Fold each of these.
Amino acid sequence: MIGRIAGRIDYRASDHVLIDVRGVGYLVYCSDRTLQSLPRVGEHTALYTDLVVREDLLQLFGFPTLIEKEWHRLLMSVQGVGAKASLAILGALGPDGVGRAIALGDWNAIKAARGIGPKTAQRVVNELKDKLPELMAMGTTPTAAASALPSDAEDAVIEPASLAVAPPPPRSDAQAEALSALTNLGYAPGEAARAVAQAAESDPQAETAAMIRAALRLLAPKG
């Protein structure tokens, strides 16, 4: 199992890149958003990867951050969402956008991804809403795969999944801290995640205390 790959980009296609690692070329499929963020041919890059194994096919999928890789795995756990559909959703919304859409129950945002119909979009929201808090707690901008990329091409390596960089601890950002505070107050994780997402949508730069107050106002009984 390959958990991370680093090397030189030999060529780019519409849905994948070829990364040369010490003379061995690896085809890595990526979302449109990720492909746009990668450097030019001839330059070096690094991606966290997920290997999909089927009876007649092996495909490697690449992600710039661990959180996006985890979203890919979660999305593929939904009935009707394969690897390509997952990449389409992540390419259209990004990991933060996917989390926000699920927290707010906005399946129309999921449906905006290429090839995703309304029933599939609704399943994504319904099946993943209870798993959202765990990913939110990882933070919104975890360590990027290329953050420690070697400058020397000879140092580029692939790492098995068992040796890949471990997920970073929960980041001390306002959303993660607000979510933790609300769940400690006894609110259900899904309910707290929706309130935090709504508060963050209204004021993305709010500090923790302000985020908690805004979420509490949203959770307060109406009437």
Amino acid sequence: MNRTDRLYALVEELRAVAPRPRSARWLASRFEVSVRTVERDISALQQSGVPVYAEAGRTGGYCLDKAHTMPPVNLTPAEAVAMALALRHLDGTPFRAEGRSALHKLVSAMRREDVDAARDLATCVHLLGGGPIPPMPPVLGVRRVLRIRYTDRQGTATRREVEPLGYVGKPDHWYLIAWCRLREEIRAFRTDRIVSFTVLAEVPPLRRLRPEDLDIPYGDVEQLTLAG
């Protein structure tokens, strides 16, 4: 990253967390430069009129004047995960790094509890086989009991209540991994075979999806992260 890009990125980083401070050491680690370089960059920004000031104390650092920050971005946890999935389509393009940077700024501006919820949701999403992922169907991201009408590969339709555990995306299909109350075991439901679904008010008991529960005999399974 050249100096001009770094100066812009410094301002955006401070804008994303304002009015909270960022220490010179934290910023140096974030941009992979020395603390001295950060201090010189901050001085240059101040001399150019950017309202950056130093906050003293053990938890202090550099802050951007709150009056010059943008309004907060209120992404929902599901929206943040959807953006992380969308960034998968930038793999192999010159804009992947910029996409990751944009997601980082948006996540930094979210409320802490929403960030935690988004990261929890992201751990439920697994990607298989590489390549572009198809659009995310509406059923993904739902964390309550679902009543679904499902058609298997033979065309037989059944009605079931399921407890969502996770989601697996392949280049051709999405799968809902859930505890099936009809079969009393974990099952994978191809989402294009879910004819209809209703979200019930019931929140299912906590069940952790283990790697062995996916039972995928081929390919590499990658867990989605908010790092893009």
